[in-house]
Design goal:
Layout: E1 2-6, H1 13-24, E2 27-30, H2 31-39, H3 43-50, H4 52-69, E3 73-76, H5 87-94, E4 96-101, H6 104-112, H7 127-145, E5 150-153, H8 159-166
Parallel strand pairs: 1-3, 1-4, 2-3, 4-5
Helix pairs in contact: 1-8, 2-4, 3-4, 6-7
Bound molecules: shikimate-3-phosphate (S3P).
Length: about 170
């Protein structure tokens, strides 16, 4: 089985995904890392040198390649992944999708404590601009995230909650 974790940057997809994979004895795949390996370029460099539109095409291609390569795995997707092309439908067809719905205030708090230069959509923004960007982006993306099969809400989502959903 493929399990896709969806949600905004900073919603815990990678951290929870790693833990979930470990507990289920599944392979863990981070879609962004997979793209970086395939392209031999960082996500930041892909955005900077080729632009977001090209990144989204590469993201979709990586998603398809991953589905072919891993019959079962826990996949942490990039925050925008479900929101381009028919990616959410594609993931729903090929696996179980779980939306980690973390409040913007918590996401912002977490992201501000990380290295923002690695996040091309947030780099060079002030705290106020980041808050506004996150709120607007989430409002646009919810229509896609909400198509996930499962949704967990809150600032402290745990692996145990995800496992309970899957049982
Ligand atoms: C993005 C989120 C990032 C990465 C890229 C774009 C987005 O992944 O795919 O910077 O559009 O929200 P994370 O959600 O893993 O940070």
């Amino acid at each position: 089985m493929l399990i896709f974790l969806l949600g905004m940057m900073g919603s815990g997809k990678t951290t929870l995904g790693r833990q979930l994979a470990q507990q289920l004895s599944y392979t863990f795949v981070d879609l962004d890392e997979y793209i970086e390996q395939r392209e031999q370029k960082s996500i930041a460099a892909i955005f900077e040198e080729l632009g977001e539109e090209t990144f989204r095409k590469k993201e979709r291609a990586a998603l398809e390649a991953l589905v072919q390569k891993f019959p079962s795995a826990v996949v942490a997707t990039g925050g925008g992944a479900p929101c381009f092309f028919d990616n959410i439908k594609y993931m729903n067809r090929h696996g179980l999708t779980v939306f980690l719905a973390v409040p913007v205030s918590e996401i912002s708090h977490r992201l501000l404590a990380t290295n923002l230069s690695l996040r091309p959509l947030l780099a060079n923004k002030s705290e106020a601009e980041i808050n506004l960007f996150l709120a607007k982006t989430l409002a646009n993306r919810n229509q896609f995230y909400e198509q996930a099969k499962y949704k967990l809400e809150g600032s402290a989502i745990t692996v145990a909650q995800i496992i309970e959903l899957l049982n």
